[in-house]
Amino acid sequence: MCCDLKRRFLLLYATQKGQAKAIAEEIWQQAGAHGLEADMHCMSEMDKYNLETEKDPVVIVISTTGTGDPPDTARKFVKKIEDRTLPPDHFAHLQYGLLGLGDSEYTFFCNGGKTVDRRLQELGAQHFYNTGLADDCVGLELVVDPWIDGLWLALKEAFLLQKEKEGMSSVVDAASNSLSAAPHIVHELNVSSKVQNLELEDEGMRSSDFLSQKLVDINLEASAGDTEPSLVHSVTPLSQSTLNIPALPPEFIEVQFQDTHGENPHPSSLISEGTTFEVPITKAVQLTREDAIKTALLLELDIADTVFDYQPGDAFCVMCPNNVSEVEELLHILGLSEKGEYFVSVKVKQGTKKKGAVHPQHIPERSTLKFILTWCLEIRAIPKKAFLRALVECTSNAGEKRRLQELCSRQGASDYTRFIRDSNVCLLDLLHAFPSCKPSLNLLIEHLPKLQARSYSVSSSNLYQPGKLCFVFNIVEFPACPARPVSRKGVCTGWLAELVAPLLHPNKNILDTKGGSPSTEKVSILARPSNTFHLPADPSVPFIMVGPGTGISPFIGFLQHRQKLREEHTDWEFGETWLFFGCRHRDRDYLFKQLRCFLENGTLTHLKVCFSRDSSTAEAAPPKYVQDIIRLYAKEVARVLLKEKGYFFVCGDKKHMADGVTDAVVDILSMAMEADRLEAMKMLAMLREARRYLQDVWS
């Protein structure tokens, strides 16, 4: 089709960790095959597009971050459209389709996309295509892939309608004829995609030839009794299917090795979204007994010599490196062990076909290879299908090549979810499982996301402990599984545990972390203040805290802060406070037994605890979980929420706790209101909207 007949649409993305951008790039790549031209921009590049004058359809891909906030790259855009002085027909000329990304493990699912969608509607914009909401909890591709498939017909209809409105019937005919090729293209992708998308350039043969083979090599390699699929082996019908796989992403990075002379940048220079502070660790305490199922640590940081400030309930981020042994192992597999200390120059490849290719902000223009793998790239990231597709071209064994194709294909979606996503497989695991796969360094830089700083809840009060910041975490453990034969610790929690090992004093559970040996170890932190998860502004308002396990962390800060306020303002009126805490064993992982100090001095009015794994000789079994205790105090909970307009805070695991607590609260509201469950759920939604039912949860 002639270039001048290609129809343009505006493609905007707003991303926090790169997923929305990757999906937008996929749309951009597919657009050309459908006779369309996507004018793609990051939402933050507001000087490059103007929705006020935009006449063409707009496609938006936007993620959600934090507890329902739009990503950083969308903040200016959202602030602009949230201007309440804008008239209701401000965007009456605009046609758009929106794809939101989120995680249903969190309360405000896809709220970034929903916020933009709702506001555009309020300002008169019209959908030309239904909004899609993709859930990272079950796999974004379950919504993303069919949404993109349907986008092309919706765009075609939007263009035809646009031309009819303009009264340009001749152009309508031309556009209709040119775009009528799209169904043929779709058919080709669905039925004969092996011709276009499975071309194996390194072998110099068309994939139609390759896929028409019976894949004897694969069948020979699989053992006779191997009837179950695995990471490296598929079974029928997948093993015999013609595959639809993504288009090969164009390479856009060029890496050149230099010498070994020079200095690496400081890791904090990689952070663009805030000020970092390098602070010493002054205390480390193991809060759990050695025989506890999980190991919980409390760390104290000295922030006295910085301007770092926080409120109880805030979070902050810790910059962490990848595991040293994993970096060395990766270098070894790539055949670059001797090159680790060499400086490399990273540039955008001249003549790349990648739209808007730029130098990745998180990669220094000059640093050592080891520095890039240690501080810049998330080598533990679960590989996306586009990465698997690129790895196909780096794999020499036919059986391994076919399996990688299956894992990134539409037909292999369930295998991808089971053996890659749910198994937390990373690049190292893939390289072990597919030994003939030898990716180039530029592919790693192109496809591995930025190493993210890890977020933790503050577990202290600057009023109670000036110049100190405490936080609590479990050392995350990833046990071995068939797809990942080695166990691993969390990237940040494993590193922190190793860092503070000399400071640890097992079997000491303390609240007041004064004293202790000073540490020369330092960590780089940056603020991540909460907009909502804070104590009520009015100290007379009662509140309830639910925090089992390390979910108690922010509430220690709440109570420390409240205690100090009570000491300094004896004439103030303070509302009652409830804390529901739970753990497995009273004598192994009761993290803060000194909570009773808060009870004794009146800071905490009610403390209710439960132990899920302790045996009991009582006739009536005690409650096992926090949601069970909450039900025992239904009248009190209802009184605080409904009559006294109090607050309800929940912190901890989403799936196994927070959802159960929400169900319990809905039942309590239903009984108290003498209403059905639907009405109780509406009341809970109102409490959320009023920011009186607040969650700080993780999956």
Automatic annotation (TrEMBL):
Span of domain Flavodoxin-like: 9-152
Transmembrane segments: none
EC number: 1.16.1.8
Gene Ontology terms: biological process: cobalamin metabolic process; folic acid metabolic process; homocysteine metabolic process; methionine biosynthetic process
Chain ranges of the FAD-binding FR-type domain: 274-536
Domain of life of the native organism: Eukaryota
MF annotations from Gene Ontology: [methionine synthase] reductase (NADPH) activity; flavin adenine dinucleotide binding; FMN binding
Main location: cytoplasm
Obligatory cofactor(s): FAD; FMN
Keywords: Amino-acid biosynthesis, Cytoplasm, FAD, Flavoprotein, FMN, Methionine biosynthesis, NADP, Oxidoreductase, Phosphoprotein, S-adenosyl-L-methionine
GO cellular component: cytosol
Family annotation (CDD domains): methionine_synthase_red
Subcellular location: Cytoplasm
A Pfam family annotated for this UniProt entry: NAD_binding_1
Catalytic reaction list: 2 cob(II)alamin + A + 2 H2O + 2 H(+) = 2 aquacob(III)alamin + AH2
Subunit structure: Forms a multiprotein complex with MMACHC, MMADHC and MTR.
Protein name from the UniProt record: Methionine synthase reductase
Species per Swiss-Prot/TrEMBL record: Halcyon senegalensis
